[in-house]
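2024-03-11 09:14:02 INFO receiving multi-entity request
2024-03-11 09:14:02 INFO entity count = two
2024-03-11 09:14:03 INFO echoing inputs for audit
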Amino acid sequence: MEKTIRDCDTKTDEELVSLTADNPEIYYCLMARYEDRLLRYIKRISNVNKETAEDLVQEIFIKAFENINDFDIKLKFSSWIYRIAHNHAVSHWRKNKNEAQVFSWDEDDKFKNMFESEENLEKEISAKLTAEKIRALIGSLKPAYQDALVLRYLEDKSYEDISDILKKPVGTVGTLLAEAKKKLREKIKKENIKL
Amino acid sequence: MSTNISQKVFEKIRKKEISAKPRWRFVLAHFLVGLLLIVFILVGALLLGLIIELAVQFNALEVLGYSGGRVLLASLPYFWIILVLAFSVLGVFEFFKTRHGYRYNSRYVALGFAALVLILGAGSYAAGFSGKTENYLEKNISFYSDLTKTPSQFWSQPESGLISGRIISNGNNSFKLQDQNGNYWMVNCSGANWEGRAQNKAGAEIKIIGEQTGSGQFRAGEISPWTGMGMMMRGGGQNGSYGPAAGGYEMGPGMMRGMMGN
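2024-03-11 09:21:47 INFO inference complete, emitting structure
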């Protein structure tokens, strides 16, 4: 196992996927690479505690392993596993939707990036953003807007990656992000939050 | 890098002997999605071809000019139209189930699908396939005429100014016509437009847009050749029977569709 892990370091995700078919031990390397990222992502898009998030990630890894032969080589592995994670989280949410949903994340300040193109605003946000208030406002947005914002500004995904993860056209992703930012701006204004 | 979860999953995979599903299952699933998509496109195109075929056999534009659309509206092949729309919607949904279907804008996919069905439907009509299908359905499917108005039924509405049949005898300004139900009509054709290959001669199979002027009397406005694959000879007309022995006419091999040659 040690040797397997060492061998993995020089290989890309996609190379590891192709090797997993012959040697399932290689899959361990892929899981190790994505464990933290997926755990964070699941916590960001779901209203679940740490234990449940870990259970979900385990289920996601098993599901991905079972379906590894369906991996599309035209996609990035990260997009593929994020898609499985997103769908699994949504499915979990549907089964437990009676529980109140609270949007959560642990790197709130990363959201300032969403206003990067707006020079003055960025400076103001960096200086005055009240993370708790903004957090609550984002949590009140439609799930589709939350998904887009999390993937773009917390997971640092490109439009193409978000398109592959959410299975939406790139143009729709752009529209979603623009609308999400607009709605958020409106809410900030309505709540009279000074940025 | 935390590997706690990875370790647990790896142990679980080993202990429970979880294995990856074989590749052929995914290949088969993707193949079936693609196959279904092709079926939806082809069926949609075939149905659209049938609609074009019926519109041509109904002389839709000419009838529209005469009746203002009332007769045409009552005779549209709604069943086929609904089916074309249903298959088109199914086709678009099926497209989004394909591996990379989600990358395309739904509006463009719908437009592309409509264009493809339109092109293939027009091709099916132009190649004569729609005509043959329509003829086959009319002859072999007993409930076909319940689903949609057939050309024979459409051109047997004298009260709406539509009749069709074979010229039995002819004069300069009139002719005697036996319609598809075996009824005889004296048709006044002075001032009528003779379209395409339609001619005032005995044996000619024609369809007429005009006006019923009395019992067995009709004034023709526009006369076209019968363009169907052959007239449907139905029994039960005024004579009670149909065909040469009953004084009617037989299915003519010359009643070939003229639409392609017009």
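2024-03-11 09:21:48 INFO post-check: Residues 23-147 of chain B form one domain.
2024-03-11 09:21:48 INFO post-check: The two ends of chain B are 78 Å apart (CA to CA).
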